[in-house]
Design a protein that fits this description.
By secondary structure, the chain is of the alpha+beta class. The chain is built from 28 helices and 28 strands.
Length: 761
């Protein structure tokens, strides 16, 4: 409220008393007039005092005509001279309805002689907001006590009423915040409160998103909806209008003319389309001065904000900060209560709250719901061997994979420890793809987890139950899925079991070929057989080549040609190759520990395995783990493997050479880049392809090529090994051509470990 002048009354409670004094003064003035101005000086002084009063003072006759009014009354009706209002009635100054209201009140006062004190009156003001006055009207009597008119005294309380309305509005907003009403409603009420205080102004609140990069629509009840939609999602930055810049700087940004200000360079067209000329924005801050959003006032004229307008901006940003921070605090509390703090997945409390609703909707829409109870196999070993911090990292990685495997309508829940629940909502009463989705889920879990440069393989046992056949309530579904999961554990882990719903606990879900192979790699179903490599001249053992076999529980011993292509296609070749590498190193060292003469063991390396950036590290770790001298390990690489990325291959081969491992080029003679490979790469041995050897010695072309290969290898100081030798004639030719080593059925088929031991002895 504006400060009062020295002559202004100190409180509205004194109005009635002052009115009585003014009545007396007025009567004195009128009596003085009646004595023909016998005391002119006193009369002039009294008039001056009355006209200097800051409040409205007037006298009316019995017909409610103005007899006298002070200067304030005259100015309020646009009269330059107070005397000009004499003889006027309210009907000459206001519209009929309002004038009639005043007239009826005044006639009642004069007819009854009862004053009307402290009446609140709303006075219209041309071109502006109405004025609020506190008015008292008192009957004026003559010497005989007869009512001859009335005296009116009014005080302008517009500012006080504005302050009261503002305080009430603030209190209402704080109550809305305390009642935890929707944030949208609170922000809209806040904007409307500010707009009610100002003329020609529209307000807008934008909220900073969780990433702190974009401003989202909060509230703008008086702004054009199309404009609000256009700026929704605007990124913050050093030159993004008033709001985007204010959020970026964390300070108010005042733009008096958006058509010329450089901050609005990219938004001038949008502003012009909606007639916006100035925009004053301030950041909404937390108590720690972190930006939550912005509050802005728009005007359709070019101008700076007034002090009062900036006060309202400060008020709005303060209340908006309280509301937004409270709402986000509530959201954090709810999230913490309903989500796992390690993985961020929903927890049991969330599941309990949501599951009943999910089943109800599924039943009403004739849909199925499948729950998969997932337990990670042997997860305790990771915690025990690597520590709980490593276990936590694995859990977070697997939780993210599971979440990425499901649709928006599905749900992944961490029940606790290493147990999870996946809820799959079917799109119909039968979902033929549900088994495929479950397999994809298990496949995602089984992918190796990289941890501190190593890859960990984690498998899972999954129990499945479906609504309504596998349970009609959340409790029944979870119990049946849990039973099926324990059945999967009993059957050897890393498998799916389905609750049948017909009295059986669980039934097997057939494994796919990929799952079978994955299970073979981790389930001790792979075997290594070894084929002899002999010196052609002496017949002595020169080395062994390790060849993998699959000991399938139903199909028996499966040759590599039946599963290596599948391993290549699915990426399992990397895991399979690592197993072969480690097993060959272990076996070679074991033979030495048995007292047998050391022998070189050759291992085939696939293209995908060789392309692994950590391949050289894996080789080093295998040698270290099994205490094998590197000179007893040979790695066989094909031409196509090393020619895919020459620079990368050279780097890897150099690292392997520094380890002391021997390298051989396999299947030489079967491609078109053989000579380039020999020239470029640091091989130690050359293995001549069986397709060339099998034509010897009858095919003269094959004889010429084989002779040239052997001669070339000698020149390059490479040992030549002929593959696929099956006859004495082939062996005789190789001996004649000075080929150093050979392998094939002529000497021995690939043999299991126990038979190899007999040969080595």
């Amino acid at each position: 409220m504006n400060e009062m002048s020295a002559t202004q009354w100190q409180s509205d409670g004194e109005l009635a008393e002052e009115t009585r004094r003014l009545v007396a003064a007025t009567e004195t003035m009128m009596a003085a007039n009646a004595r023909h101005h016998s005391d002119g000086i006193e009369n002039l002084r009294l008039k001056a005092i009355v006209h200097e009063l800051p409040d409205f003072l007037y006298v009316k006759d019995r017909d409610s005509r103005f007899v006298f009014a002070n200067a304030v009354v005259a100015r309020s009706h646009n009269f330059d001279n107070a005397a000009d209002i004499a003889g006027k009635r309210d009907f000459d100054l206001f519209d009929f309805d309002l004038a009639r209201k005043y007239f009826d009140v005044e006639q009642e006062i004069m007819s009854t002689g009862v004053p009307a004190l402290d009446m609140e009156e709303i006075i219209p003001v041309a071109g502006g907001k109405p004025m609020c006055r506190l008015t008292s009207k008192i009957p004026l009597r003559n010497d005989r006590g007869e009512v001859v008119g009335l005296i009116g005294v009014s005080r302008d309380i517009t500012e006080r009423k504005r302050q009261e309305d503002l305080r009430r509005g603030q209190s209402a907003l704080l109550e809305m915040i305390a009642r935890n009403e929707p944030l949208e409603m609170i922000l809209e009420a806040l904007v409307l409160l500010v707009e009610a205080e100002l003329d020609g102004i529209a307000g807008s609140i934008l909220l900073l998103d969780r990433d702190g990069t974009r401003l989202l629509h909060g509230a703008a009840p008086s702004m054009p909806g199309a404009y609000s939609r256009l700026i929704d999602g605007t990124p913050i930055g050093p030159k993004v209008g008033s709001c985007g810049t204010a959020a970026w700087r964390g300070k108010p940004v005042i733009v008096s003319d958006v058509t010329i200000d450089p901050l609005w360079e990219d938004f001038r067209g949008v502003a012009a389309e909606f007639g916006l000329r100035s925009c004053w924005s301030a950041p909404v801050l937390t108590s720690q001065n972190n930006v939550l959003g912005t509050f802005a006032l728009y005007s359709n004229t070019v101008r700076e904000p007034t002090a009062h307008e900036m006060e309202m901006v400060a008020l709005a940003t303060h209340i908006a900060g309280i509301a937004i921070e409270r709402k986000r605090g509530d959201e954090r509390i709810y999230f913490m209560a309903h989500h796992d703090d390690l993985t961020g997945l929903p927890n049991r409390a969330f599941l309990k709250e949501r599951m009943a609703k999910t089943l109800f909707q599924a039943g009403r829409n004739n849909r199925k719901v499948t729950v998969a109870y997932i337990d990670l196999d042997n997860f305790k070993d990771i915690n025990d061997s690597r520590g709980h911090a490593a276990g936590d990292e694995v859990l977070k990685e697997l939780a993210a994979r599971m979440a990425n495997c499901v649709r928006a309508s599905d749900m992944v829940v961490r029940l606790g420890g290493d147990e999870f629940l996946v809820v799959l909502v079917h799109q119909s009463s039968h979902d033929a793809g549900i088994l495929r989705r479950l397999r994809e889920l298990q496949k995602a879990i089984t992918r190796p987890v990289s941890l501190d440069g190593e890859e960990l393989l984690v498998t899972s046992s999954i129990g499945v139950a479906a609504f309504p056949s596998g349970g009609s309530t959340p409790e029944e579904l979870l119990a049946n899925a849990d039973q099926a999961m324990y059945r999967a554990k009993e059957l050897g882990r890393n498998t799916l079991q389905y609750h049948s719903g017909d009295g059986e606990n669980a039934v097997d879900i057939p494994l796919s070929e990929e799952e079978e192979l994955r299970q073979a790699i981790v389930g001790d179903q792979l075997r290594l057989h070894y084929q002899l490599q002999v010196e052609v001249a002496s017949g002595r053992t020169a080395g062994l080549e390790a060849l993998v076999r699959w000991q399938h529980p139903q199909r028996g011993l499966v040759p590599p040609g039946n599963f290596i292509p599948l391993a290549e296609e699915t990426g399992l070749i990397i895991q399979l190759g690592l197993w072969v590498l480690n097993e060959a190193c272990r076996q070679a060292r074991d033979w030495q520990d048995q007292g047998l003469n050391p022998v070189t063991v050759a291992v085939n390396v696939s293209a995908k395995q060789f392309a692994d950036p950590d391949f050289a590290c894996h080789v080093h770790e295998a040698l270290e783990r099994h205490r094998l001298d590197p000179r007893w390990l040979e790695l066989e690489l094909t031409e196509s493997t090393v020619m895919q990325d020459v620079d990368k291959a050279l780097g890897i081969m150099a690292r392997l050479h520094r380890l002391g491992v021997r390298l051989s080029i396999d299947d030489f003679g079967s491609g078109y880049s053989s000579l380039a490979a020999l020239k470029t790469f640091p091989f130690d041995r050359l293995k001549m392809d069986r397709s060339l050897v099998e034509a010897l010695p009858a095919d003269k072309t094959a004889v010429a090529i084989a002779s040239a290969v052997i001669s070339l290898a000698k020149t390059l100081k490479l040992t030549v090994v002929a593959e696929g030798v099956e006859s004495d004639a082939q062996l005789e030719f190789l001996r004649w051509a000075k080929c150093e080593e050979a392998q094939g059925y002529r000497f021995a088929k690939p043999l299991p470990v126990d038979e190899v031991v007999k040969l080595l002895k």
